[in-house]
Amino acid sequence: MTLTYLQAISAALRDELRADERVLLMGEDIGVFGGAFKVTDGFVEEFGHDRVMDTPLAESGIIGTAIGAAVVGMRPVCEMQFADFISCGFDQLVNVAGKMHYRQGLAVPITVRLPSGGGFSGGPFHSQNPEAWFMHAPGIKVVAPSTAQDAKGLLHTAIHDPNPVCYMEHKHLYRRIKGEVPEGIFETPFTARIARPGTDLVVITYGAMVHTALEATEDLDGASVEVLDLRSLVPLDEAAILDSVARCSKVVIVDEANATCAAGAQVAALIAERGFEDLDGPVVRVSTPDVPIPFSPPLEQAVLPSVERVREACRELLAY
Amino acid sequence: MATHIAEPAAGVTAEAAQHLTIEDRVWLLRAMLLMRGIEERAMTLYRQGKVPGSFYDGYGQEAVSAGAAFAMAPEDRLCILHRDLAAHIIRGVPPARILSQYLGREAGVTRGRDGNVHFGDRRVGCVGMVSMLPDMMLVATGMAMAFKLRGERRCAMTWFGDGSTSRGDFHEAMNWAGVQKLPVVFVLENNQYAYSTPLDKQFAVDPVERAAAYGFVGVTVDGNDVEAMFEAARAARERALAGDGPTLIEAVTMRMHGHAAHDDMKYVPKEQVEEWRKRDPIDRQDTRLRELGVDTDALRAEVQAEIDAATEEALAGPMPDPADATRGVFCEGEAEPLRDGVPRWSAFLAGGER
Predict the structure, then answer these.
(1) ipTM
(2) Residues of A with a known catalytic role
(3) Chain A residues close to B136, C-beta within 8 Å
(4) What number is the average pLDDT over the span B128-155?
């Protein structure tokens, strides 16, 4: 069936609620209102208020109680209304959930949905890409789908995973991206995917930037450009990255997140350590400079990586 | 309010006596003696350089955890604080496993991954604390939420200190539990100081009064009377199982040692310590039992022998394998569940509620 990225997320949640009574959705305004982005629209009618829970406005509370419910056998899926708000639940996620299995051998099967990313004048508190915060915290998995099919498959895998998983869903893709999605529950592995094969240069990226990269390199003076969609940041598919580097020898890494210590910085470090011999040029990064995401369209467009910036970076590296 | 000493509410002790057999009352003393003895032994090992890191204890506060945990059923779930070793003992964590934990040994509860009292033993239904102290209030609230959603007759209990009442997670947990009327018991261990900070720098009203603002019962209990603590917890659990929601128990006590081994407590007036020494929870229960004809000397000897044997066992155990340091960050395969604790209170042994 053809679904938008957002419909694919909804479908995954609906399938899980139907299949597994341990699954419980928790979040602000997700019940009667159906969620700020309507991901859970109509869910209360089918599943009731207990399983599609309108919580108090308390992100630490959402993560903390989800951890408690998870260790006694539930499979909570928490919605942050915006990914930015996870800063208020950071301690519970990083210190309680992330360290639980290492310290005590207890599983914490919670999925935290993080509507992230900018591009629509959300301003400094509704546009962030906080995935790197959690890549730096042991014990938390981080995934970021770019297609409708992966939005569904990765969410199923996340909910089935016995560990805390941050599921970065890009708001700008919600209704802009659609595609064929298999019926029913299926798992997409936490590994990278070649979005388009190529041999002259590889653009390594994830989330919304996969589409930016595909557009930027669709017709690049006849060059064969590969786009590697990471899909999972923790675990990071190191083999797939190094394989692309070996075949293409030139690498552009694109992050929508702020540049310093972004996911792409980790990818660059990996290539420097283990892919150096395969390189035919410097590793090039395109990312958002280290500024809060500004509100006004010309300011926001000035900082987010654009099709033009990615295209220019690729052109320069191809000519190196 | 400041450093008030709670007077036992009239009838609390008499009420407790109705629910406790003589064996129960001896077990309460036994748990407190084990806690003090294990902590004294661990302190000695710390001074000998055998316990790495720092050392924390709950000297003088033994009644708070012993009394409250005793009222919890095996199927209930607990998040225990670092001054509450007696709760671990009551749940059934063997003394050797506790001492191995202090020593950083492979046989410790966290297998050397965390130190001192930073543990919860999943084998007996406990989830270990983190150092951001009121965090576990939310975890306990979430466990209670799951129990209620599944229609199970169980409750969750968690301990935290006077300093914890200043943090946001205290509010978020109290509010959440109040809104959803959850079967959770919050034990506020008011031991007069958060590290060196006294109560009058922590809150402007006695935090027990806040319970009403969240829509549930708050009670102040003499935290140095183990039977009064038991009775407050028993009543709180009964309310929780009846669907009447959470209870905040403020256990008023005194931290008789420093925050940790390095802390000489010079910020505490000597008279305050002396005043509280007269209210020692172990002495009080000991006196009570002697008046009932119990040979508490024999009990003390028995406990001491148990601790000696446990110390020997713990010291003989291996340190963890350095190769293990990077293992187990993620759960792979089937997860280990939380299992039930050991029944202690005679009402659970008999299989029926009183």
Answers:
(1) 0.96
(2) 126
(3) 96
(4) 97
